[in-house]
Protein 1
Amino acid sequence: MTNGDVSAKPARRVLIVEDEAPIRELLRLHLSLAGFGVDEIGDGAAALDRLRAERYDLVVLDLMLPGLDGITLCRAIRAQGPNVATPLLMVTARDTESDKVLGLESGADDYLAKPFGIREMLARVGAILRRSERAGAAVDPSRRVHSPHVVLDADRRNAIVRGAPVELTKQEFDLLYLLVSRPGIVFSRAALLSRVWTDDVYVTERTVDSVISRLRRKIERDAQDPELVLTAWGVGYKFVDVA
Ligand code: CA
């Protein structure tokens, strides 16, 4: 019996980092049924060693871990090593907006609160893998990103919005580039500041809001009713996720 081209592809590899054995086993079972080759680790420090040594296609990471917590681990693997861009789903027993923001700021692609349903977990995994594949396909060596409405070329600093060129300042361009490269991901104002205004000391979170306003006047059909750069109330901003 063959599975056609499915069996010809090497299995995608996931690392599950979770200290609670029943949850780890549940994740292992369903991710292997979904076709992943599964490795699992219950300790944060051991997970960091593994993630510095081996590249994975997906990491499912518990927030509360012995050895090293999930936020610190996430920041460490995003800073350097083979998993700087690996899709990462953070799982946590806590379900507050601040935990979610902290998780996403530390570099997670999405966030899942326990207790979770298997279908929801698999849906989130599928969504972050699709986003990552789109971003991987979109960010080519000439450093272009695109969505259905926006094409950005980082080398030429060209922005094309709905087929027409748009003049953007450096900050407007960098902000939009970051948002478009991670559609659907909410960036807090602090996260945007730290990534876009890397050289500027005298900026505040209000600076982000004013650049977002100017950007919207340039790229939205109606800046008061944005369709591309969306507000996540009380948190920050995200680029529309067109599935
Ligand atoms: Ca835990």
Protein 2
Amino acid sequence: MQKTIFITGATSGIGKACAKAFARDNHRLILTGRRLERLEIEADNLTKQFGVEVFTLNFDVRDRDAVQNAIESLPNNWKNIDILINNAGLAAGSDPIQDGNIDDWEAMIDTNVKGLLYVSKSIFPLLLKSECPHIVNIGSIAGKEVYSKGNVYCATKFAVDALTRGMRIDMLAHGIKVSQIAPGAVETEFSEVRFKGDIVAAANVYKGFFPLQAEDVANAVFWVTGLPAHVNINDLVIMPIAQASPGYIHK
Ligand code: NDP
Ligand code: 8X3
């Protein structure tokens, strides 16, 4: 059955890989992100490669009005959403908490927690029309265990973990599945963003072991959302074989 998939943060990394995984299976996509040019190129590529319909929405998940307006602006034939993938997120900085940068804290809290809430709130009514509604939140191993200098990023991902559980309870009566995928280290633009463009520091994160690739996480999302109607994966932790927990990577 063809579904409509709404993906936040589809301009890079895990979100982009999810878009490809669902396009390959002929689903309709609503792709979102701040970088308009990337969105347009990606939509074009997916349409050409897989012949699927792609709609793009260009907004910052931290901007509550922009989120609401963008989702309200969807044409009627795009307002039946089957799967919401709450993926947009970031880590900003890597400092002991006493040296933390308050702008970094706000960026993480506003994006990873408040942004996820704003998007979910606007999408809930659109999921109710689906026969197989599903919300997938991209959490992290950082939402299961804290690590040195992870402080606020970890707190935001612990919040995603809690929100996933809370949503699951509240969505129960509406038949909406709610799942969390919690990956360990994935080689994307994540560390480049965390280290504010320092590509050497970012490359060091993934040096000496084989990290997860964005496609590995996308495959997990695709599998979780393709299970029979009566089956839900509540929580899936996915790690590279070399990583036992955030602080233990065998290099
Ligand atoms: P990337 O930096 O490659 O991708 C992040 C995506 O989020 C981009 O598409 C970006 O789009 C979007 N995004 C960030 N901030 C905003 C915003 N304010 N408004 C709208 N979109 C935004 O990183 P990943 O693919 O690795 O990260 C995706 C998710 O996976 C995040 O939630 C991250 O916390 C989580 N994660 C990542 C892990 C890793 O090791 N990489 C491990 C565990 C979880 P744009 O800049 O165009 O807006
Ligand atoms: C990203 C994984 O371990 O860098 O969520 O926090 S980690």
